[in-house]
Specification:
heterodimer, A: mainly alpha, MetI-like fold, 2 domains, 10 helices, about 75% helix, about 0% strand, flat, B: about 280 residues, alpha/beta, six-stranded mixed beta sheet, four-stranded antiparallel beta sheet, binds adenosine-5'-diphosphate, binds magnesium ion
């Protein structure tokens, strides 16, 4: 049939349009995955190196010259090679882990409750906002009194810092749930535990992990000052110790380690958020 | 949450299938904060296996009434009986479909369809029931696809399959096709009536669309507003699937159109008519 045939209803076929092909953008992933991050890291190193150079050439600050990249990386290599770096990392990570665990065990149910019941939300609003704004470190003296061990006190401080982002992210997720989802599930015969397990938790899982990501951030920040007191292990203790013994290269190396682990923890959270996300890009 | 387990909800294999016979006994409903009753002395009987369309201007209480048939809302006065028993709670024996397909986006087509059976603890029936149902609604190939990838019409088909999986006696539809394009809508109208008639289900649907009412229902109930009441009814004695350009069809449609005349605003498609009724 030729394209100019006209059928009885007057509907005429048109020639097939051809789509233009676009040049493949192979440079873009390379830029975003490698070149830009390398530029960022390089910039940071340059600033650090320049700062070290200024310190080294200043007669008043000369004693602190070990903060520069050279001595720092040397100290880091030493610590890794001798294995001395792993103990403080393990102590700190376990404290953060337990603190987070408590924050999740408390924050998720709390968040579901205040997200689901408007009354619970209204009752808890003032006290929670009040408590949330108190720096976790302000609880330090109380925590020290209340807990038998330094470790428990530190875990408490981390949990106090981490519980709010988890609670509020969960509550926010629950509030966003389409009410029709509840209606349909009830109609299909869901009871409360089924509603929780099959509808609420999957619906808010990505919000929970977004909350955990924020919580990991604050927990990691609170950890170091919390470890300045009492305990004789952990990265915070190691920093304090290095300062007292004037080992500035080691001190800077620990700072480097803290930053790198924080970065890794965040990356893990981002992965988990992506994994639990059911929202598909369209 | 706040829902107790209903011991009567499980549909045993041995239960003989009985399409729902519905009696609506003088329902009056007053929403909190509304000065007038939304529904007043609504009374109707719907035979087992009948398909009924409920039409009327928006806000006259159609969704409210349908929620009561589903047991998702209790009337202030009066009651709904299905096969003689008063309805006090939702049950998978009378399933409701909404304008939005309201699928669970973290699940595949199959998982969504199987949900009712899963809630009943009837996992063993999933394999034998779900795939044939998906075949019936034409989604067998897409069973493992995430529902977010489907078109609006396909999503509404999943919602239909999900409603049918628990083998309901009664299917309730609240403007289920009004968000779809015209081609999909017509196809789904015929498909749903085909399935409903084939299985012998009772069906009550709310619609804004006069043509849809004539295409799908044995009986059209016409509601008036303020307060909501069933005022008139019309029988549609045409065979399925209905030919929308047959003179008899057109005549009935014209008759309904004329009845509404200027008293009803034009059917609103894609309007925000999602019920704001909170399930009690
Ligand atoms: N939860 C509610 N609270 C108070 N009034 C409501 C509620 N839901 C619906 N209404 C009112 O009841 C009337 C009927 O609503 P509805 O049953 O949704 O009408 P229809 O489905 O016919 O458009 C409307 O005036 C609406 O505003
Ligand atoms: Mg409505």
């Amino acid at each position: 049939m030729s394209t100019d045939t006209v059928n009885a209803a007057g509907i005429r076929p048109l020639p097939t349009a051809r789509r233009k092909s676009w040049p493949a953008g192979w440079m873009e992933p390379l830029r975003q995955g490698l070149i830009y991050p390398a530029l960022g890291i390089g910039g940071l190193l340059a600033v650090w190196w320049y700062g070290g150079w200024i310190i080294a050439n200043n007669d008043d600050l000369y004693a602190f010259a070990d903060f520069a990249p050279g001595p720092t990386f040397a100290a880091l290599y030493q610590m890794v090679a001798s294995g001395a770096v792993w103990d403080p990392i393990a102590s700190s990570l376990s404290r953060v882990g337990f603190g987070l665990l408590w924050a999740i065990l408390i924050g998720v149910p709390l968040g579901i409750g205040i997200g689901y019941w408007a009354v619970a939300r209204q009752i808890t609003h003032v006290p929670f906002q009040f408590l949330r704004m108190i720096s976790p470190l302000a609880w330090m003296p109380i925590a020290v009194l209340a807990f038998a061990t330094w470790d428990a006190a530190i875990i408490f401080l981390i949990a106090v810092a981490a519980v709010w982002p988890i609670t509020y992210a969960t509550a926010h997720g629950v509030q966003k749930i389409d009410p029709l989802w509840f209606k349909v599930a009830r109609n299909l015969g869901a009871d409360s535990p089924q509603m929780l397990r099959r509808i609420v938790l999957p619906a808010v899982s990505q919000d929970i992990f977004a909350g955990i990501r924020l919580a990991v951030g604050v927990a990691w920040i609170v950890l170091v000052p919390a470890e300045y007191l009492g305990v004789t292990s952990g990265l915070g203790y190691a920093i304090n110790d290095a300062r007292d013994t004037l080992e500035y290269d080691k001190l800077a190396a620990i700072v480097l380690v803290i930053g790198m682990i924080g970065y890794l923890l965040d990356a893990v959270c981002v992965k988990l958020i992506k994994r639990t996300s059911w929202r598909q890009a369209d | 949450m706040g829902i107790e387990r209903d011991s009567s909800k499980a549909i045993g294999e041995g239960t003989p299938f009985m399409p729902a016979f519905i009696s609506i006994d003088y329902i009056t409903h007053h929403y909190k904060g509304q000065s007038k009753p939304t529904l007043e002395a609504v009374e109707a009987t719907i035979e087992a296996g009948q398909t009924v369309a409920l039409i009327g201007r928006s806000g006259c209480g159609k969704s409210t009434l349908l929620h009561m048939l589903a047991g998702l809302l209790q009337p202030s006065e009066g009651c709904v009986r299905i096969n003689g028993r008063q309805i006090t709670r939702p049950s998978p024996k009378w399933n409701m479909m909404f304008q939005k397909p309201s699928l669970y986006p973290w699940m595949s087509v199959r998982e969504n369809t199987a949900l009712g059976l899963l809630f009943q603890g009837q996992k063993q029936l999933i394999a034998e029931r779900v795939d044939p149902l998906l075949e019936t609604v034409g989604l067998r190939e897409l069973a493992d696809t995430n529902v977010q990838r489907l078109s609006g019409g396909q999503q509404q088909r999943v919602a239909l399959a999900r409603s049918l999986a628990t083998q309901p006696e009664l299917l309730l539809l609240d403007e289920p096709f009004s968000a779809l394009d015209a081609f999909t809508r017509t196809a789904l109208q015929d498909q749903v009536t085909g399935i409903v008639k084939d299985k012998g289900l009772t069906m009550v649907m709310v619609t804004h669309d006069i043509e849809e009412a004539v295409a799908m229902a044995d009986r059209v109930l016409i509601m008036s507003a303020n307060p909501g009441r069933i005022e008139n009814e019309m029988s549609v004695d045409l065979t399925y699937p209905r030919n929308r350009s047959a003179p008899e069809f057109v005549a009935l449609r014209e008759q309904l159109m004329k009845h509404f005349g200027e008293t009803v605003e034009l059917p609103q498609r894609n309007s925000k008519t999602e019920p704001r009724i909170k399930a009690a």
